[in-house]
Design a protein that fits this description.
This protein has about 375 residues and is of the alpha+beta class. The protein folds into three domains: about 210 residues, Cupin (Jelly Rolls, Sandwich), CATH 2.60.120; about 70 residues, no CATH class; about 90 residues, Outer Surface Protein A, domain 3 (Alpha-Beta Complex), CATH 3.90.930.40. The protein is flat. The strands form five sheets. An eight-stranded antiparallel beta sheet has the order 1-11-8-13-7-6-2-3.
Length: about 375
Amino acid sequence: MLSRAAQRSNGSVGSDGYADLLDLDAVDELLSRRGLRTPFLRVAKDGVVLPAGRFTRPGGTGAQIGDQVADDRVLELFLDGSTLVLQGLHRVWPPLIAFAGQLTADLGHPVQVNAYITPPQSRGFSAHYDVHDVFVLQVAGHKRWSVYEPVVNAPLPDQPWTNHRAAVEKAAASPPLLDTQLGPGDALYLPRGFLHAAEALGETCAHLTVGVHPVTRWALAQALLAGAADDAELRTSLPLGLDLSDPEALRPEVEATAQALTAALGRADPGAALEVVRRDTWQATRPGPLSPLAQARALRTLDTGTRVRVRDHLRLRLRASAEHVILDLPDRTLELPAATEPALRALLAGAALAVADLPGLAVTEQLDLARRLLGAAVVVAAQP
């Protein structure tokens, strides 16, 4: 169901929109002083994405890499009516790194953040749909949004709108489901699949798109299907000389395969499929930033008075085995002595603890555990 968030009337967001996340000065900072490279910037005009060579060049002495954003070329294209798309801001702009990290933790689904900066009276992209849910946050200026019914319900990543271009164009020629104007502080929710197009009005416009990439039942189905590869019957070769263009010749093989697949799925271990989805989803997100030099310093100076806490937004799971406790991380597992379980659970509760306060361990064991967790970037030194 499509809904438009009401304008914030409680004073939490004023005429400066979402300036705590991004504003036009921040956009200039990113375009001119941060050494951005493709694909962190795209440029589009009238629905056509421009070649990167139109707005990049080497950075000069000591920075000859050729795909760096050239601010003067960006200016020329913007004055000509092109839309600027800053991609992956959840990786490069500190307020959005923190925002996206917390939102991912709250929702359980991976989150990305892009920004669209459009000149007055311009449209960067024609009507299209996204294969993930989108929250539009209007940062600056006013933009008119037209939203249309889906041509594909809940599309998957391999079902982009370009696969249905004719249907999209036809749907966008019909009366919109929603025709509205957003100003600073407004938000619009676009479930995946809903067609949309936007046009800047009488001033430079900027909005954020907060993309939520849902973990779907299809992801579970794919994990179950991957597990079915262990079934020997499903690995059986088709007969030699089989005419693959003859539906009648293929029918018995399709029916036998469907029966074997049904049986294999009936024997599948749901836990194994869930583990695949957990691993893939966790690896699609990143924990909060880590300061390598500060982390190394904390290791060198570690003592019982050092306070540590779990790294921000780090996805992990603690489970016990007969002789160890196991810490599952996005890309690996850590085996730790069983005696460390109370200390680990105390840390996972969220508070910062002095090494001396890690429960259930002798002093040398407290230091060993803290050293192991710091070295594995599971915990960081907490501010005094």
